[in-house]
Amino acid sequence: MNAPLLSVRDLSLWYGRAQALFGLVFDVMPGEVLVLAGRNGAGKTSTLRAIMGLVPRVSGEIVYAGRPIRGMAPHAIARLGVGYVPEDRRIFTELTVAENLEAGRKPAPVGSPIRPWTIERIHTLFPKLAELSDRPGGALSGGEQQMLTLARTLMGNPQLLLLDEPSEGLAPLVVERIAETVRELKREGLTILLSEQNARFTEAVADRVLWLERGVLQNLIDNDTTDKNEKNR
Ligand code: ATP
């Protein structure tokens, strides 16, 4: 069996005196799509932000590609090959789509198995972004901005992609397109940890699902997902 790409052990997190995560333990295996599911406020965003080094009060162990990363700065974690797409779609609204993509360009970490992303490959994955190249980011629809945020993160050549609620606030057709993109990225060899509340989206992309409730991982086993897992092995 392969070693996990990401290993989380006893992860707890506090905002001031309020504890938001309680001793999470999970692994993300290379090449899988793992979905962190749970209601609003369950702690999904906090988990992703903790992995990315964006929350100061965290305890436990976070190991990426065999290397402890807890306490490292977000840009250093990104440089190791972790890409983070936050829920609030941070694009540069004044820059064009093409300029946004250039702004995301970073060399692939040494030894990364991922084929480096080029503007041409991004355009193949997101033909719509090719059409919109000269438009300012701020003029894009919600779904287009979500694609641009994801595409810009890919230009940083991550091996592990953290996606925070990629379907949120988007029309069903756009959600289906994003699910297809996630499956395509998995075929490219990326490992993906994403948070999601949309059951249909989860069903469409997940190899495994973890259920988070009030900051605690539940040991519920989703039979559908288990069956799907068995088929995928
Ligand atoms: P959502 O779907 O709303 O993003 P979530 O599952 O991602 O929910 P989190 O955003 O991680 O959940 O929130 C987990 C808990 O931590 C909630 O009780 C929330 O109120 C609290 N929390 C999140 N961010 C902060 C913050 N910056 N300061 C204080 N409390 C916070």
Describe the structure.
- With 233 residues, the protein is an alpha/beta fold.
- It has a single domain, classed as 3-Layer(aba) Sandwich (Rossmann fold), CATH 3.40.50.
- The chain contains 9 helices and 10 strands.
- The strands form 2 sheets. A 6-stranded mixed beta sheet has the order 6-7-8-3-9-10, with helices on both faces. It has a 4-stranded antiparallel beta sheet with strand order 2-1-4-5, covered by helices on one side.
- A hairpin with a 2-residue loop joins strand 1 and strand 2.
- Helix 3 (97-103) runs parallel beside helix 6 (142-154).
- The longest helix has 16 residues, at 172-187.
- The chain is globular.
- The structure holds adenosine-5'-triphosphate (ATP).
- The site of adenosine-5'-triphosphate has 11 residues, from strand 2 and helix 1.
- Adenosine-5'-triphosphate binds next to strand 2 and helix 1.
Task: Outline the biggest β-sheet.
Answer: 6 strands, mixed
CATH class descriptor name: Alpha Beta
Query: What's the tally of helices?
Result: 9
The percent of residues in helical segments reads 25-40%
- Which compounds are bound in this model? adenosine-5'-triphosphate
Approximate strand percentage: 25-35%
Question: Would you identify the regions where 5 or more consecutive residues have pLDDT less than 50?
Answer: 221-233
Rg over CA atoms, rounded to whole Å, is 17 Å
Which descriptors apply to this entry?
9 helices, disordered C terminus, 233 residues, Rossmann fold, four-stranded antiparallel β-sheet, alpha/beta, binds adenosine-5'-triphosphate
